[in-house]
Amino acid sequence: MIRLNPAVLDRARELKGFTSDEQLAVELGMSGATIRNLRHGRTAPTIATALKIGRLAGVPLEGFLVDNTAAQAA
Question: Tell me: domain 2-60, CATH 3.40.50.300, correct?
Answer without folding.
Answer: no
